[in-house]
Amino acid sequence: MKRMSLICTIYFIMTLAALGQDFRAMPDMDTGTLQALIDKASNCGGGRVTFGRGNYLIGQLELKSGVELHLEEGSILLGSTSPYDYSLVEVGQTAGDRLKDNSHRGLIIAKNAKGIAITGKGTIDGQGLALALTIDSLHHTGELKDPNYNERRHRPSELARPTLLNIVGCDDVRIEGVRLRNSAGWGLSFNRCNGLVLRHLDIYNRAYWNNDGIDLTDCHNVIIVDCHVNSADDGICLKSYDTESGNEDIFISDCEIRSSASAVKFGSASYGAFRRIQIHGIRVFDTFRSALAIESVDGATIEDVVADSITAVNTGNALFIRLGQRTGNRKGAVRRIRITNLTAQIPFGRPDIDYDLRGPEVDYFHNIHPAPICGIPGNCIEDVLLENVHITYPGRASKGMAYIPLWRKGDVPEQIEKYPEFSMFGELPSWGLYLRHIRGITLRNVQLSLEAEDFRPVIVEEDVEGLTIEGSEINYEPTLKSD
Q1: Is 322 within 8 Å of 294 (Cβ atoms)?
Q2: Coil, strand, or helix at residue 303?
Q3: Exposure of 400 by Cβ count < 10 A (0-12 exposed, 13-18 middle, 19+ buried)?
Q4: Model confidence over 94-129: pLDDT tens digits?
Q5: Measuring CA to CA, how many Å separate 87 from each of 104, 139, 155?
Q6: CB distance 65 to 40 below 8 Å
Q7: For residues 450 and 393, is the Cβ–Cβ distance under 8 A?
Q8: Are residues 6 and 249 in contact, defined by beta-carbon separation less than 8 angstroms?
Q9: Residue 354: alpha-carbon gap to chain centroid
């Protein structure tokens, strides 16, 4: 897939020519009146609904084919804080427990539409904290019970909380320029869409738990360019629930991400394929988990992934690649992964300490984790290249905190059926890279550095065939490599 030809082709398809009628929304219009404007524009063959300066209190709006919502600077669409204003969006039958996993409600929704857009310099604010707390209260009074309520964490499930955008089964979608704020759940959710362009977006989604930035589920031909994401959960997340589909031909470029989870993540829902994914020029800051996480644990094939020019500062983990098997007997695959020009700085303390809502810590004592690349016995990750990678670790490991000597490296649990996360294996016996069940991996000009001493060796490998190390160096030798 050639980068520039993909951009030019899709953007040509996606750009809406302003040939339809222009309809003007007014701040005193209610949701029904605004919906009638959208319907009229669509019935006229397409057009633009413009929101001028002012506050618009809205319930759920449905975008229809051929319609562009244009938000002028100073316009603010404020989501209703009543859960009764949000109806279910039909997503179709998919694999896994999809109906108990993620939201099927949204402030702005679209279903099987073509040629739709949201543009401008205005703001969409979901007022998510107030909405989530209302949902919580109604659950506890018994008025609106959430059957999937999270009793351990004392919060409504994702199923009960609307997203800002919930776009399902749509072709030729463009979201450009707008500010997106404060969802009760995920921010921008796209399910089974084809031909999607997200450009110049400013996403701040830290009002409540599980607040992802952008989620792509079984989408094809997607461009995400120059987006700023600050989210309480994953920044940009690719998921698949359709065993016959997946995410294909995705291009993510020149984005800045802060997250109390992972910045760019594949999974954890991974039933269909992830193919021909390009990631370029990503800047990651203050992120609790991984700058880049690639996970196949439900039978997905992940192949032909290129990630280039990623810079991560104050991030809990630089890179996590996992091939697991938590869903029955479906075996997945991870192969042909190219990670180039990656620079990361791993802190000693928690990188998201300034977040009001922080991701849950692991429940065991541990030294700083290395970057794991791990398959499982009998199903290995294949053909990985790490080139021009520089990761700086804080060191300061202590045997008193945790200790796995090399002669006990086989004691590290496989965790074949567990939820994937770079901390899933517990204490690990290396400080730089942990490689397990791999067939073919090249480390070319990989520099792993320590800011202070660490008693562990830089790399530990187990069941790895075809490891090639070229021009790599360690800038601080550990004081003790093994017992």
Answers
A1: yes
A2: strand
A3: exposed
A4: 666 544 567 789 999 999 999 999 999 999 999 999
A5: 8, 17, 20
A6: no
A7: yes
A8: yes
A9: 20
